[in-house]
Amino acid sequence: MSLSILACIACLPIITALVLMVVLRKPATVAMPMAWGTAVLAALFVWQTSPLYIVALSLQGTVVAVNLLIIVFGAILLLHTLTASGGMETIQTGFRSISPDPRIQLIIIAFLFGAFIEGAAGFGTPAALAAPLLLLLGFPPLAAALVCLVMNTIPVPYAAVGTPIIMGLKYLKDLVLQAVASGQSELGFSSVDGFNALIGQWVAIIHTPIGFVLPIFMCGFLTRYFGPGRSWREGFAVWKFSLLASLSFLAPYLLLAFLFGPEFPSLIGALIGLAVTTWAARKGIARPAEQFSFGRREKWESDWTGTISPADAARPQATMSQFRAWLPYGLIGILLVLTRLPVLGLKGILAAQKLRFEDILGFSGVNADIPYLYLPGVIPFTLVALLTIPLHRMSLKTAAAAWRKSMHSMIKPAVALVFAVSIVSIFRGTGIEDKVLNPNSYPSMPLAMAGAVADLVGRGWPMVAAFIGGIGSFITGSNTVSNLLLAEFQWGVAEVLGFKRDIIVASQVVGGAMGNMVCIHNIVAVCAVVGLYGREGTILRMNAIPFLLYGIMAGLMTVLLLALF
Q1: Of 253, 268, 166, which is closest to residue 207 (Cα–Cα)?
Q2: Whole-number Å distance between alpha carbons of 565 and 553
Q3: Burial class for 30, CB neighbours closer than 10 Å (0-12, 13-18, 19+)
Q4: Which residues, listed in sequence order, are joined to residue 260 by a DSSP beta bridge?
Q5: Could you give the CA distance from residue 267 to residue 119 in angstroms, rounded to a whole number?
Q6: Residue 393 DSSP class
Q7: In the predicted structure, residue 204 carries a pLDDT above the cut 70
Q8: Separation CA 12–CA 23 (nearest Å)
Q9: What's the CA gap between 479 and 507, in Å, rounded?
Q10: Rg from Cα positions in the chain
Q11: Given this model, what pLDDT does residue 33 score?
């Protein structure tokens, strides 16, 4: 069978998910099992592998999904615990008095506060937290949803202390080790950790110019589409403050990516950025002379609002000091330093504690493990959630309610993730060098797609790579799962075309972050919290503009890096 036909068949699971979720508007809990079924049929009847081997690969994917679910649960548990304790409400009140200008509020809340929450929790939580706060401050609900989705992109590769890179590139492990063993590793990475750190560095470099352009572009976008004067210029007038905010975030973001790896850039960078910009805003530093306003609400367009208006939004009340409210996040930072820096010794001890699953169902090389103590879902997220109970003087009843809510919220993500990651495992397993399990010696599904796409796009691939990652997030709702699904594909294309594999994989990661602004899961979630039911299509259409800008800038940076290195 020709490579192009194999590639078309390999695309069917992705097309199935795309059609079900986008065209038929089915939830991921329906789309992912159907896409998994399509992958199973392709593996059985085209790659002619055995049913038992497919079961083993699906079990391997399930174990990997459990790792992700532990991280998701810990992040959501901490968030729900802080919400139940009143800590999150207290944090929100601290932002209300900083500046009355919506452009400043966009930069501080949607960009920097969202980046901090993304670094600590990830998984779509920043937009769901920041959008209601902007609504309370007087933003039209549609504007609040749009800007929060778009700004929740740059910090995403380092979300939940680096999960999209550390876990999302998990399936590149064997390819990286082969490259190291054969002396082919670019720029001298000598291990999987070294490769992940290198990817984190390239991602930070690609994101740096985007990080300066995107906030000021979105300020202009805000005033152009939601201002009485419909003027880009009103938004761009905040350029000095925007550049200050970007610099205060991106300088530590870059530095941390190079010094400590992919776990700290968003979390610590955003914390530093928040401190600098809130101080500057209170002092009036770099703020524009004229204040922007959305105008009188009765003149707003009808599609700007939904079932919740700013007047209806419950105003947060401080129930404790700002210090006590932020203390759990401070503990997260301390615990991350203690458990992630190799020189302190705890990293090796925690990472060595694993549940190992080797040669699943007797198939050699079908392995997976759960490093249960090293996963950030356990330390620091769940540990800090437990410590928050006495720190915020919560009753056991209130804490138990937060745990129940967190567990309930895991049901749908669990179903979607298990099937999504199992698809990835089947994708990879189809290329095994075994005459019984792969009698025609076909390349794996990702490599078949990579070969066909390389023939089709050729040397123009660097401009396309980020968009592919974005489509992956659009389909799966996750940068992590987009990377799991497509990183090997991107590696294969780079190898066929002779591009540096690490830079192309970094472009995939950046694209997966970019896809956060258009993925159906995130759009539905933010629409729910601001009362915009049925407006998902409007948001998707409007966010296509910053999506294209982001992708073009990522492509140009990828081309530049390939030319320089």
Answers
A1: 253
A2: 18
A3: middle
A4: none
A5: 4
A6: T
A7: yes
A8: 15
A9: 12
A10: 23
A11: 93
> Which DSSP string do the residues of 416-430 spell out, in sequence order?
HHHHHHHHHHHHHHT
pLDDT at 72 over 70: yes
Which residue has tokens 């300088």?
251
User: Taking Cα atoms as reference points, which of 272, 409, 276, 321 lies closest to residue 89?
Assistant: 321
- Asked if residues 207 and 226 have their Cβ atoms less than 8 Å apart, the reply is no
What are the strands, taking DSSP E only, across 245-387? 355-357, 368-370
Top-confidence range, 55-69, 86-100, 336-350, 500-514: 500-514
pLDDT the model gives residue 230:
93
Please, is 319 exposed, middle or buried when counting C-beta atoms within 10 Å of its C-beta (0-12, 13-18, 19+)?
middle
Q: For the chain, give the number of residues.
A: 565
- Higher local confidence (pLDDT), 120 or 469: 469
**How do beta strands 355-357 and 368-370 pair?**
antiparallel
Question: What is the distance between the alpha carbons of residues 46 and 187, in angstroms, rounded to a whole number?
Answer: 38
Element (H, E) at 555: helix 536-564
Query: Which residues contact residue 540 at a Cβ distance below 8 angstroms, ignoring those fewer than 6 apart?
Result: 518, 520, 523
* pLDDT tens sequence across 35-66: 999 999 999 999 999 999 999 999 999 998 89
Q: How far apart are CA 149 and CA 134, in angstroms?
A: 12
Residue 388 and residue 86 in contact, taking contact as beta carbons nearer than 8 Å: no
Q: What are phi and psi of 369, to 5 degrees?
A: -150, 165
504 near 169, Cβ under 8 Å?
no
- DSSP one-letter code for 227: S
Name 368's bridge partners. 357
Q: How many helices (H) and strands (E) does the chain have?
A: 25, 2
Q: Please tell me the distance from the alpha carbon of residue 37 to that of residue 65, in angstroms, as a whole number.
A: 17
Q: Which two tokens stand for residue 301?
A: 């367009």
For residue 25, give the 3-state DSSP assignment: coil
- Tens-place pLDDT, residues 363-402: 988 999 999 888 888 888 899 999 999 999 999 999 999 9
Read off the tokens for 526.
Answer: 């933010």
pTM: 0.81
The C-alpha atoms of residue 434 and residue 529 are separated, in whole angstroms, by: 51
The alpha carbon dihedral of 428, 430, 436, 439 has a sign of: negative
Distance CA 71, CA 81 (A): 15
Report how far residue 216's alpha carbon sits from residue 229's, in angstroms, rounded to the nearest whole number. 18
d(CA 160, CA 142): 27
Residue carrying structure tokens 């352009």: 213
- Comparing 297 with 361, the larger pLDDT belongs to 361
Nearest CA-CA partner of 491 in 479, 481, 503, 501: 501
Q: How many CA atoms lie within 13 A of 101 on its CB side?
A: 23
Find all residues with CB under 8 Å of 327, minimum gap 6, and list them. Answer: 391
H/E stretch holding 143 reads helix 141-151
